[in-house]
Amino acid sequence: MELYEVMRTTFACREFTGEALPADVLHRVIDNARFAPSGGNRQGWQIINVTDSAVRDELANLSLPSATRYLLEMGAGENPMNSITPSKVTDAEVAAAERPDGLVDHIRHAPTLLVVTVDLSVVASMDKDLGRVGLVSGGSIYPLVWNLLLAARNEGYGGVMTTWGVAQEPALQLLLDLPPHWAVAAIIPMGKPVKQLTKLRRKPVGEIFTENSWRPPC
After folding, report:
1. Which of 126, 146, 172, 186 is 20 to 30 Å from the Cα of 163, by its Cα?
2. 175 pLDDT band (50/70/90 cuts)?
3. CATH number at residue 41
4. Sheet holding 182-191, edge to edge
5. Which of these, 61, 60, 163, lies nearest to 118 by C-alpha position?
6. What is the mean pLDDT of the chain?
7. How many domains does the chain have?
């Protein structure tokens, strides 16, 4: 496919036909995605292909608390999970709410399931002392994650980057045998899309592009 077409048609795919990425296609996806940039070119990443159904179930179960909170905060008119405005949704409300199993079914049942992990001991985190949620560390792992999704789209497959389970990092580390300094960046269900979207909704350039200084969004 032409590059810009891939960029404009790679959507968050959560419904799959059941067709897994063949081994040679998955290898080709990873082989090309690995050319993503990282700080110092340290490439402190490892991609885990999860084929064990019990592990998949636990990954989905660990995603449920955050998925539940996300829905409750959205229902309360909040911007879910943001780090600036404290949520009015309580832990007790989250614990008492019905679990949205349908939101994590694509983790349990995706034909292919990848977990992308990163070695924090080699990541250059320039904003680590700013006293806010760190962003710069993501520059050494999320280009790889996006390359995986772009490459899958180029091969006629689709996927979605999920991060709900990351809130349960100690349990994820235990489940996947990760050392303490290795973090989970994303859980990516992949497969053949039931329907391929070609018209994605995005803000126009004029709303996101400025010169010399920030300006309030339109």
Report:
1. 126
2. very high
3. 3.40.109.10
4. 45-49, 112-119, 182-191, 158-159
5. 163
6. 95
7. 1
How far apart (Å, rounded) are the C-alpha atoms in residues 16 and 105? 11
What is the rounded distance in angstroms from the CA atom of residue 51 to the CA atom of residue 176? Answer: 12
* Unique residue bearing structure tokens 């296609």: 25
Query: Is 214 part of a structural domain of the chain?
Result: no
Could you tell me which residues come within 8 angstroms of residue 202 by beta carbon, excluding any fewer than 6 positions away?
none
Provide the pLDDT for residue 218: 67
Query: Domain range holding 204?
Result: 3-208
Give percent of the chain above pLDDT 90.
92
Position 134 in a domain: yes
133 falls within a domain: yes
SS (H, E, C) the chain: CCHHHHHHHCCECCCECCCCCCHHHHHHHHHHHCCCCCHHHCCCEEEEECCCHHHHHHHHHHHHHHHHHHHHHHHCCCCCCCCCCCCCCCHHHHHHCCCCHHHCHHHHHCCEEEEEEEECCCCCCCCCCCCCCCCHHHHHCHHHHHHHHHHHHHCCCEECCECHHHHHHHHHHHHHCCCCCEEEEEEEEEECECCCCCCCCCCCHHHHCCCCCCCCCC
Q: How far is Cα 176 from Cα 192, in angstroms, rounded to an integer?
A: 26
Would you say residue 215 lies in a domain? Answer: no
